[in-house]
Amino acid sequence: MRSANPADLALPFGFGRRVTGAALALAIAALILVLFTSILSVSVAGSSASSTVDLPHLLRMTAIQAALTTVLSLAAGVALAWALNRLKFPGRDALASLFAAAIVAPGLVIAFGLIAVWGRAGWVGDFFGLFGLEWTGSIFGLHGILAAHVILDGAFAARVLLTRLDAVPASRLKIGQSLGLSPLKRFMLIDWPALAGSLPGLGAIIFLLAFTSFPIVLLLGGGPANQTLEVAIYSAVRLNFDLEGAVLLALAQLAFCTLVIAPMLYFTPDISVGGSTADYHWPQTTGANTLAIGVLGLGLAGFAMPLVAVLANGLGPGLSNVLTSEAFWDATWVSLSIGMSSALLTLLLALGLSLGRSAFNSPFARLTVGLPAYTYLIVPAVVLSLGFFLAVRGTGVRPQSAAPFVLITANALLALPFAMAVLGPALNAIDKRYARTAQSLALSGWQRWRYVEMPLLHRELGLILALGFCFSLGDLGTISLFGTNEFATLPWLMFRALGAYRSNDAAAIAALLLILTFVAFWLPTLVFKDKRDA
Quick check: is 532 in a domain? Predict the structure, then answer.
């Protein structure tokens, strides 16, 4: 009888990755199920008083706001990407990186910056005062929400779409130039086909970001008329402790967002910030250059003005008071420690899920493994926070004791969709180029990761760590139900300062938070060098 060959007993390549990916997806799904079960059980056993939540109005308002944000952000993103692609000037890449950082800029800080510019006591009001006029405009309301979202999401869209335009083959540009295409025909025949494939997935991401927006709507909403599901859930829990209403809103948001998420998995764009730049130069007409300069100038002013206002107002009288405050340093330590832990957890989850998902051949299996990674875009942070709060309380553990664990887990889930969007396209590209070589060398899963994939993913790994840290650093949704005087992060400390009308303190915290976020986002690009082949 022939003895068994050890090679015949070896597990097929990708088995460990598939098991790991499926296990992580199942664990995330189980966690969400436990949290929702905790909410539902308390709601059923709670007060018999009926909820006063106006679900149709909230759903309609949230959908309208998110749809308008998506359309305006995509339009702004296409225009800015076109302008950046046409113009070649020193500092272009730095400006593109600034737009890329919009995805991690704290929404609370951007909203505060808009108030500093357009509020009654803001820069515009001061300018009108120089001429003896009174500024009667208001940044609060739907227009203010849209302005803040478009500033963030439009800049993010511009960076993603610029990568697509810069990747247009030089041969196609040469043919277009030889045919004497006008600027309009060049856009329609060359640029638009390069952009169109990214718009569905990018639009879905922007829609869900706006649909689940919390700090911007909380600060700029201006009242119940512009309240969205996320803020309504916070109000129902934190202010009224209306668990029945919170559950109803959460389920509505879960159902609505799931309908958007499923097709999005097939159109997810690469949000990596290190795309190659096309070197081919196609001289433009004077009119096209003037238009590009105007579009870029307008976009840069709209994006940079709130940031400059935050820094100008924050690095002033209130700074010394904040820096000598023990509460500030305690909140800074909490934010940094939770941010670093969340970033590491985000990276581990993204690697396990992305590698596992890529090892499956079935589209349904890929969808099943990938869907739990988009938990945050489906389930709002305040719902996750509420579920954690009730689940922990049911075990007899003080919620404040479990707060660090809750924030680390929730913030990792927050950054996970974007980490998957970074890793997915990169892994697919590596697989197409090196899969046969790795197979011919009989590399195991670990060997393939160590010698092939990891060296080519340095840039993506650094970006994921940056995303995980920055998302955690600027998050207000989760801490909104766990924050206390003794346990606070920088956004929660800033929000409390605003509530107590300590505007100088809030401005100083906003400025420091903005600086810390941008430094943390750009630092990994210096540490994690790109080793991808030219």
Answer: no
Return the percent helix, strand and coil in the chain, to nearest 5.
75, 0, 25
Question: Helix H segments across 46-122?
Answer: 55-86, 92-100, 107-118
Comparing 170-174, 325-329, 385-389, 497-501, the range with the smallest average pLDDT is 385-389
C-alpha distances (whole Å) from 78 to each of 83, 159, 169, 189, 306 are 9, 9, 19, 15, 22
Q: Domain range spanning residue 98?
A: 27-42+53-275+283-527
Q: Is residue 189 part of a domain?
A: yes
Domains held by the chain: number: 1
Four-CA torsion 119, 120, 124, 130, nearest 10 degrees: -160
Over residues 371-376, the mean pLDDT reads 77
Task: Please name which of 31, 52, 36, 65 lies closest in space to residue 383, comparing C-alpha atoms.
Answer: 36
C-beta atoms surrounding 130 within 10 Å: 7
**In this structure, what CATH number is given to the domain that contains residue 268?**
1.10.3720.10
On the question of pLDDT at 9 being above 60, the answer is: no
Asked if 506 and 493 count as a contact pair (C-beta separation under 8 A), the reply is: no
Q: Is 364 within a domain? A: yes
The predicted model scores a pTM of 0.82
The separation between CA 344 and the C-alpha centre of its own chain, rounded to angstroms, equals 17
Cα 284 to Cα 455: distance, rounded to the nearest angstrom? 39
DSSP string computed for 125-173: HHHHHTTT--------SHHHHHHHHHHHHHHHHHHHHHHHHHTS-HHHH
Nearest to 424 by CA among 287, 253, 266: 266
Reduced to 3 states (helix: H, G, I; strand: E, B; else coil), residue 110 is helix
* H/E run at residue 296: helix 286-314
Residue 3 lies in a domain: no
Is 399's pLDDT higher than 60? yes
- Taking residue 162's Cβ as centre, other Cβ atoms within 10 Å add up to 26
Q: Is the pLDDT of residue 401 over 60?
A: yes
